Model the fold of this input.
Amino acid sequence: MKYIALLRGINVGGKNKIKMIDLKKIFELLGFKNVKTYIQSGNVMFDCDSHDEVTLATQIENKIGETFKILVKVIIRSEGELRNIITNNPFIKVPDIELDKLYVTFMSDNPVQTSISFLDARKGENEKFTIISRQVYLYFPNGYGKAKLNNTFIEKKLKIVATTRNWKTINNIVANLI
Done:
C-alpha cells in the first residue's frame, strides 16, 4: 500500500534540520519500499504492507528521534485518502477562488466537535475553512503568512497534532506517487 508521511515542523525556519537524503535512509532502514521525498519540508512517499497508520507514524517518529535526537510528529495518509482530499476540497468548486490561496491542515485524529467553534471565532476577514474528517480545508485570500487560523492555533484549540500544506504541494505529492 502507498502512504504519505507528512512530518510536522522539520526544516522550517532553520529548526529541526534533516536532509531529505537522510530522511529517505531512515524510511528505508524501517523496511519501507519505493521511498521518495518531495521538497525540503518533510513529505515522504513510501510503500509498505501495514494498514496501521498509527503504528507506522510511531515507528517513524521513534526512528527519527533515535537518529537525529529531535521530536518530530508524523501524520500518515494513504494514497487513496490523499486523492480523496484533492477530489473533495469544497473550495475548488467555488467561483473566483485562487488556487494558490488554498491549504489543507492534516490532523492526527478527528477533532472534538465542541472545539471547532474556536476556529470560527478566530478566522480573519474573508478566511474560510471546512473540516472534513481529519482535514481542515482552508482558504486564505490574504495569504498564509497573514492568516489567523494557522497550524499552531489549530493544534492548540483542537488539542490535536496537525501539519499544513499548500494546495500546490498536495497536488504535486499525488503526481509524484505514480
About this structure: Residues 53-68 form the longest helix (16 residues). The mean pLDDT is 91.
